[in-house]
Structure prediction request, 318 residues.
Amino acid sequence: MKLEKVLLSAIIFCITNICFAQGYPNRTLKMIIGYPAGSSVDLYGRAISSKLQESFKQAVIVENKVGAAGTVAAESVVHAPADGYTLLNTASQIVINPFVQKLSFNTEKDLIPVAQTLSISYVLLTGPNFPANNLTELVDYVRKNPKKFNYGSYGNGSGPHLAMAMLQKSAGIEVTHVQYKGSGQMLTALMADDIQLTFDTTTTTLELLKAGKLKAIAIGGPKAVEILPNVPPIAQSYPGFNSDGWQGIFVPAGTPGAIVKKLNLEINKVIQGKEFRDLAQTRGVAIAPSTQEQFTDFVKAELKKYERLVRENNIYLE
Prediction:
């Protein structure tokens, strides 16, 4: 009798789940973005929402909820109804925040990863007059001048901060951390030689590199990027090095599985379409289609990686 009840409950759950998904979506969706208008997360999020609107034949409203490196937006989605109508479009900072901030939610338990959308390489950068043109020269020069050079980031626990922490440990070098309010301020300081090194994404630095105002030394991700074919990855010198950033979409925990699968399918169609691929490629960014299960496993691995990195380097948010 007990087994029959369990089976009946499972059947009812599956039928309800499938029926719910078959009528989905039948009203307006909302995409929450935790970064300001004009940012890369906002740019690509709006491009995705526009295409989802076409395929779903339902309005997709974009709402920017900025604050605490994406945490304000994530928290609002955690507390939204788990019905597939509230999406979080965010960046890889979401897997760093649990270890550098005090959060009111559990990232792994309270959000469901739906689909990765992009892989975004960090680039190791110097000013144009820095006396090194490749990673070997840079490491040798910094080793011979310990604690003489500064590097920039946009805050403790930010992508550039953690990427440089990884490089310092891998290469056995020491450089002093200087924090800025954002990428623009940091890159201005780099060009003025107030700092000598930093990491930043291809999205924000490509035009400055083309203009010769910055110099790309190496790629932080595991492989070269098409738009900078002559810049080798750091992993060639230090195997396993990977500071790639990424973007992806999440929904609240409890969202029916069939709806999550449907969202994953539609988002993958969008990012593999010519219009979105062209938008990404012109900014040196790679699309990253994946199944929902693959993205879930990836997020879990990223959480473990950054937990270890933050603890090893005693990083915290000031």
Notes: The domain at 2-119+246-310 is CATH 3.40.190.150 (D-Maltodextrin-Binding Protein; domain 2).
